[in-house]
Amino acid sequence: MKLVFLTALGVGGATIFGSVMGFLFKKISHAFSDLVLAFAAGVMLAAAVLGLILPSLDYGGSLGILITILGIFAGALCLNLMDRLVPHLHRLVGVDTENHAGNANLNKVLLFVSAIAIHNLPEGIAAGVGFGSENTAEAILIAGGIALQNIPEGMVIIGPMLAAGISPKRTFLCALFTGLVEVAGTLLGYFAVTISAVILPFALAFAGGTMLYVISDEMIPETHHDDASGATYALLAGFCLMLLFDVLLN
Question: What CA–CA distance (Å, rounded) separates 202 from 75?
Fold first, then answer.
């Protein structure tokens, strides 16, 4: 349990660490941001497949393939529904809600931050579910992959929020909130599969499906709208790094 709690703090703390880096390097070029996010997408892709989806097949027994497929689609559909219900965060950050010239950009930034917070919950759950499988090496792989992608994620939200007129204090509090969501998700995922080991195969696939959804629906399109070659190789580098870690840990 101590390891799970420390991992939860590490996964959530990676977002906060990234946001601190964002304050230090406020003007991150779009090209560099694309490379970093694409690398993070590769890391998440490997963590989802190696740490969640393949173990789901192993634990599912004779019905493993059916349970895994259902879990993947359930996770993706759940996150798709959450995307459609993303609330505005004006009240949380104390920003004027009247129509001004910059409000369109402000709305986009706040929705982006709220989307990160929403996505951090299933990412945290994925880390916690990994520990429920009692394979510590795989669990650390998943948590490490999520933590690695949380650092650039935390970095890229700072600049746009400051540019949109949100104070540094409130900007940091928003980043802190997204990190705490992930801590809560990690503990929730761990306790859920600990209480009922029967749901483990489905929970692993569900968590994997949410991660695949984030990668396909947001991270890859966001990083491949200009010259995609650099982002593509960055994604492959992230995937191969996690593949290497998986081999070394096992």
Answer: 10
Q: For residues 105 and 144, what is the distance between their CA atoms, to the nearest angstrom?
A: 33
Which residues, including other chains, have CB under 8 Å from residue 10's CB and lie 6 or more apart?
A: 143, 147
User: What's the rounded Cα separation, in Å, for the pair 79 and 75?
Assistant: 6
Question: Which sign does the torsion angle of CA 9, 10, 15, 17 carry?
Answer: positive
Residues whose CB falls within 8 Å of the CB of residue 6, separated by 6 or more in sequence, listed in order: none
pTM to 2 decimal places: 0.71
- Neighbouring residues of 13: CB distance < 8 A, sequence distance ≥ 6: 179
> What is the spatial distance between Cα 17 and Cα 10, in angstroms, rounded to a whole number?
10
Which residues fall within 8 angstroms of residue 168, CB to CB, at 6 or more apart?
Answer: 23, 162
pLDDT digits (tens, 9 = 90+) for 76-133: 998 888 767 654 444 444 444 444 444 555 555 566 666 666 667 777 877 777 776 6
Provide the token pair at 199: 């749901």
- Angstrom distance (rounded) from CA 115 to CA 109: 10
Angle at 209 between CA 204 and CA 214, to 5 degrees: 130
Residues sharing a CB contact under 8 Å with residue 90, sequence separation 6 or more, in sequence order: 96, 97, 110
Q: Which two tokens stand for residue 18?
A: 């990234």
Over residues 28-43, the pLDDT tens digits come to: 677 777 887 888 888 8
Contact 147, 11 (CB under 8 A): yes
**Nearest Cα to Cα of residue 182 among 223, 134, 229, 121:** 121
Q: Which residue has the higher pLDDT, 48 or 108?
A: 48
Q: Do 154 and 18 contact (CB within 8 A), yes or no? A: yes
